[in-house]
Specification:
The chain is an all-alpha fold and 52 residues long. The chain starts with a helix and ends with a helix.
């Protein structure tokens, strides 16, 4: 069974990947967007994981 947080993280990651591909014409811009999405996901999920 997939926990809701993991499911949301997977959905968010997939959505981020689609956003990256949609702007892949500019490699630098897409790379920054992808890392920005991962950073936001990390900042959102870590406090939830540790129950803060």
């Amino acid at each position: 069974m997939i926990r809701p947080l993991q499911y949301l993280a997977i959905e968010y990651f997939n959505h981020s990947q689609l956003q990256v591909h949609s702007i892949s014409r500019n490699a630098i811009e897409s790379d920054q967007a992808w890392h920005g999405s991962l950073l936001r996901l990390f900042l959102v999920c870590m406090p939830i994981q540790f129950g803060r």
